[in-house]
Design goal:
By secondary structure, the chain is mainly beta.
Length: 549
């Protein structure tokens, strides 16, 4: 009887395994959607400082979970198997290193057999703001991920096309028979090699720096921290010169050069209150790209030292990030505290991005606070407007530029939005080639650039065209931090006939889905008005979706 019981248990276990394996390769195929938004996922880590950081765990299907990561205005996901094994998909290096975000939903392709639901593929939308030369284009791709036991990997990337969703499902259906597009194990090995080689290179740079008497250049921000919104950089030719000047600075950079270009830079930040100090140590390659950045925060609000190390490839894509904690007094490593007040700073991806780059040597250094570098050859600046678009109390730039020799005269204008930080660094955040009317298609009432204002963080773009009859368009856009895009939140369109004294005003609020249409006829003393209210779709629309009427 004892052996019969053992045989029975063994057969039952084999039957269970067989049932699970059978469910993976047979059964009815269907779709299950799960959420990837922060509101629906469990937040593990989050910081609003600087560009922000987020890590959350989202519910999946069949015991699987999804980990959403966001850092440096880029997003990716990892798949966590029921066993706990994690497959890192690295969208931000494998698909695009540009600013990016994942879609709000994950589409699981599953096989159902009885009570078993087994996922075999995953489809995730991946939006990136890719650049080609001076142009920037928002691209929405569908990433196909095959799932098999503990393994998940990318097999295909469906580029924007007609019926892309249908194509993605067809590809997902066959994904289990396809190889990984970016082999996980191979990538892990390559990543280790890359990180090891960067550490080895950093060691040679440290040795080179150690042989020097001191930094080649010291650059300090001498602006008034409390009053000024823009840094005022002053250059010193040695540490001794800087120390003798007794300059009071809350942001100071020590720069070591090789062959005329920065190879190592230490930027120190400190608070006026003395509550914290932060040091960022950069190792640059010969081409100016950052190889490694070590960020050390010393905070007296908790008496800890937070050490972060960032490893980058030559394109500026993050390869690896580590974090450790030390006791501020003993300098011994400790476990991560449950909470601490983080002080974020910018991590510059090249020596040319340093806010004081124009004050450095020749070679790759180039100023990053001059908007003219965002204006392509053959284009000219027509109008520049400013205003705080991302609530950091620093005015950002909105440029309207015009092509002096356009191939298509109907598209000779371009809108460019640049974010500025306290150091004066400019970052191109958005571009649109179709929202502003061309210089020759405005009629008697048009032709000039758009009237642009920033009110309470909302970007207002207004333009009129026509002669006897015409129209006035007003777009309202607000920066959305979760997607790093400008969302269209409202639109006012007024069409008029000046001879017949007639007009039709359509005001749409895309946040509430409410639209009001007012039709007026007659002069001042005999005006007849009718008002109609409608409900419209609240589907999100962004600056890249807006085309002039």
């Amino acid at each position: 009887m004892k052996y019969l019981r053992i045989i029975s248990v063994t057969l039952a276990y084999i039957a269970l395994l067989t049932s699970a394996a059978f469910a993976q390769t047979s059964g009815r195929v269907s779709t299950i959607y799960t959420d990837l938004t922060a509101e629906k996922c469990k937040t593990i880590e989050a910081s609003d400082e600087g560009a922000g950081y987020y890590r959350g765990i989202c519910p999946g299907v069949g015991g699987y979970k999804l980990e959403v990561l966001e850092g440096d205005i880029r997003q990716t996901i990892n798949v966590i198997a029921p066993s706990g094994k994690k497959s890192e998909l690295n969208f931000w290096t494998n698909v695009s290193s540009a600013f990016s975000s994942v879609g709000d939903k994950a589409e699981w392709r599953v096989r159902k057999s009885g009570k078993n639901t087994v996922p075999f593929a995953l489809i995730v939308r991946f939006n990136s703001s890719d650049s080609s030369g001076e142009t920037q284009k928002n691209i929405s791709r569908l990433i196909i991920i095959k799932i098999k036991d503990d393994l998940a990997c990318i097999t295909d990337v469906v580029e924007p096309m007609r019926n892309a969703n249908k194509k993605a499902r067809e590809v997902a259906y066959a994904s289990n028979n396809k190889p990984c597009k970016f082999e996980t194990s191979k990538n892990d090995d390559q990543l280790k090699d890359s990180v090891s080689s960067i550490d080895a290179y950093a060691k040679t740079v440290d040795e080179f720096v150690g042989q020097k008497d001191g930094p080649d250049t010291v650059i300090a921000d001498i602006s008034d921290f409390e009053k000024d919104t823009k840094a005022e950089w002053k250059k010193f030719n040695s540490r001794e010169e800087f120390e003798k000047s007794e300059t009071n600075s809350y942001e100071t950079a020590f720069v070591w050069n090789k062959n005329g270009n920065p190879i190592s830079t230490n930027i120190t930040y400190s608070s006026p209150s003395g509550d914290w100090a932060q040091y960022v140590f950069y190792i640059f390659r010969e081409d100016g790209s950052v190889a490694k950045a070590t960020r050390e925060l010393r905070t007296f609000m908790g008496d800890i030292i937070v050490i972060r190390k960032y490893y980058y490839d030559k394109s500026g894509a993050l390869l690896k990030e580590t974090r450790q904690f030390k006791d501020l007094e003993t300098k011994k490593f400790i476990k991560a505290p449950k909470s601490f007040e983080d002080i974020d700073v910018d991590i510059y991806k090249s020596s040319g991005e340093l806010p004081f780059a124009s004050m450095l040597g020749s070679g790759n250094a180039a100023g990053n606070n001059d908007e003219s570098r965002f204006i392509p050859k053959g284009w000219k600046l027509e109008q520049k407007d400013t205003g705080d678009l991302n609530e950091d109390k620093i005015d950002d730039l909105i440029l309207q530029i015009r092509n002096e020799n356009p191939e298509n005269e109907d598209q000779d204008r371009r809108l460019i939005i640049l974010f500025k930080n306290r150091s004066g660094k400019l970052t191109k955040i958005a571009q649109n080639d179709t929202i502003i009317r061309c210089s020759t298609c405005g009629g008697m009432l048009g032709g000039g650039p758009a009237d642009i204002k920033v009110q309470k963080g909302v970007l207002l773009i207004e333009q009129m065209y026509g002669s006897r009859s015409g129209a006035n368009y007003l777009y309202r856009l607000r920066y959305e931090t979760s997607t790093n895009r400008f969302r269209l939140i409202g639109e006012d369109v007024t069409e008029f006939d000046r001879l017949e004294l007639a007009s039709e005003e359509t005001s749409t609020n895309y946040l509430t889905g409410k639209q009001v249409i007012k039709i007026s006829k007659g002069g001042e003393n005999d005006v007849k008005e009718t008002v109609t209210r409608k409900t419209v779709s609240k589907k999100k629309r962004y600056l890249s979706d807006v085309t002039r009427h």
